[in-house]
Amino acid sequence: MNGPGTIDLHMHTLLSDGTDTPEQVLQRVREAGMTLFSVTDHDSVQSSRLLPPLLLEGDPGFLPGVEFSCRDELGKYHILGYGYAPDGPAIGAVVEKGHGLRMKKVRARLAFLADAFGFSFPEAEVDALLSLNNPGKPHIGNLMVQHGYAPSKEEAIRNYIDKLRLPNEYIRPEEAIEGILQSGGIPVLAHPAYGSGDQLILGEEMDSRIRRLMDFGLQGLEAYYSGFTDKLRRQILSFAERYGLYVTAGSDYHGANKLVQLGDTGLSGAADYPAGLLRFLNAAHTRTIRR
Amino acid sequence: MEQTIISLNGRIDSNNAPKVEQEIFARLAGQEAGPVVLDAENLEYISSAGLRVILRLKKTHPDLSIVHVNSEVYEILDMTGFTEMMTVEKAYRVVSVEGCEEIGRGANGTIYRIDQDNVVKVYNNADALSDIQHEREVAKLALVLGIPTAISYDVVRVGASYGSVFELLNARSFSKILATEPEKMDWCVTEYVRMLKTIHGTLVPEGKLPDMKQTALDWARFLQAHLPEGPGRKLLAMVEAIPHDDHMIHGDYHTKNLELQNDEVLLIDMDTLSVGHPIFELAYMYNAFQGFSEMDHEIIKAFQGFDYETGAAFWRKSLAAYLGTNNQRKIREVEDKARILGYARMIRRSIRRHMTDTEAGRAEVAHWTEELLDLLERYDTLLFQPNELELEAVTENLEEVQSFVEDHLEASDCALKARTQIGVAVEEIFVNIANYAYHPQKGNATVRVEVSEKPVCVTITFLDHGVPYDPLAKDDPDVTLSAQERDIGGLGIFMTKQLMDDVAYTYKDGQNILTLKKNL
Questions:
Q1: What is the CATH number for A38?
Q2: Fewer Cβ atoms within 10 A, N terminus or C terminus of chain A?
Q3: What pLDDT, in 10s, does the model give residues B446-463?
Q4: Which of B46, B51, B64, B86 should we substitute to test contact with A (largest number of A Cβ atoms within 10 Å)?
């Protein structure tokens, strides 16, 4: 599937909800013969510090990446950031805020489960949960299944965890975009047709979203994505062209957690790269780390 | 290769998509990548997480289809382009037509009103999905080409067959209007003919619609075994001689298929849309209003809701308006040609449907055959020119020629003065032919009237097979001479030359051809 010269700019590792370590992802990227890759863990920039020392001569170029889960009154968004300075304080502050909110939520959920249903977990396991980079509902759900409180993760979430409504405290899209920009990165809207992953946003709604995010400084759209049909891709490419935005390509590989193949972006070969993608690669060139 | 059918249930969203995906791939594990059918009968909703599951499945199992999809899920699949990349079959709503008013009936189905705003066309054959698709496509084509029609928006199940649903608000068919408000007959004729001319004036891109000539050739071929050899061959030759024509014909143009919706006239029942010469259309029309009911006048009543006399009057008036003349000879000629094809079709239909098993059926086929044989003896072509009248060149027919020309001038805002002048010229020429062309025998003459728009000009052509004679070759009479000194004759042609803008004569293919031109 992956011919020479393929790229994949949207992958997850154990640092968020993937199942591969950064080393394993690097190994797979090497085997696939890619020329450029990026690891975009949710609300985490750790991969951009961990991976550069692992690169060997002849390895594909590595573009620091991140995927922020954002929300405002008008909806949910996943904002990708590429080529930022890994220790930039502005992007660090966004990560901190996200992490802080997440921890706060996990603690609130654990307290709720104990309070409302009497579910309790050994301290060591709670510590392990809290020490994860991005613990969330699925991790708590798994824990509940292990302790026999629910037959499956899905039921744990639906019947127990989701009974608690948490106040809406999120990273706002303008905060994420601003942080990425201030740290020298390129903000890109992930899978624009799917919102934060499970919505369907098309036509005028997508248009108004893109224009609103452009006001905040958005620079690109992920038009090539493993979950897109030709029709969706065409629509996003036409928006990118209309607004002069960059185009990126990513699979959303999650290791064993999803059946997405690494490198499956819908992009066939370098000959088919649209102008927006070529411009992105040009802009990313100086921000790419190579050995 | 064995196909695998997998049922999808309830909702598929981000909560359960991974689980659904694992289940699907577990089912398919260890199998070859054969055809996979997702049965969505119990699938209520699918989110984009679910769509991605299907997309990944499509990547590993390219021969993937989804069936029994409800309309909400179908809309999502359509918007996101899934319907472009795999077979997606909708689930069909079930509709009952019990007790519903029948508002139309065509060759392939019956139309019922299911509520105030909607009608359903129920197809006769149980496996009608491709027919429905065809009708939808031709209706869309007709709409694009400028024919007002209704396009179906939904396919439903009606009992064991399928139906397509159209929006038709407060509409009444022309049949119903004729049956309940006979005083509107002339209005109906005008609108019916206006639509007919629109249809016949519409050029269809090549290959988009079937050619009616092929169908008519089938009729003629079928009748070879039924008719005596001579007439049978003549019929086939007459159909073969009809030139190919890319103009549209409806193929089932009767008053049940014309609806008045508010102030708009809509054509419905488009599945028989074809291309071809208008004579094919007229044949179907004749059958609908007369042919089928010739032996049993109750048939039209059951079908159209009005009686045989109303049908006959409507047909005659419509044909006159269509041809632009009240000339009975002309109307009869075209009707006869329509009857030739009409009978051919009905005879074949009766024989093929074993209607000749009954006494009544045999009597009907015998009657049609007798009429057909008589017509085949009298006509050599199925073509007709609405603006051409052939009749015996005798002075008794002058009045008919005059009124035929008048009919055509009426249609073009011709001033009274010019009309009078044309009348004088027509009289001079026709009387000349009547008196001299075949003398002392008798023969036919043809009068052709053409009105052109730019520049506005009338051309009248007289054709006869009489002795070659050029009336223009004669010197103009010396009108300065006194009455006693002048030659008798020659004055008529002189007047004609004065009144018309151009008069020309040629002799071609054994015919005298005299042309009069008058600018208006």
A1: 3.20.20.140
A2: N
A3: 999 988 877 788 999 999
A4: B51
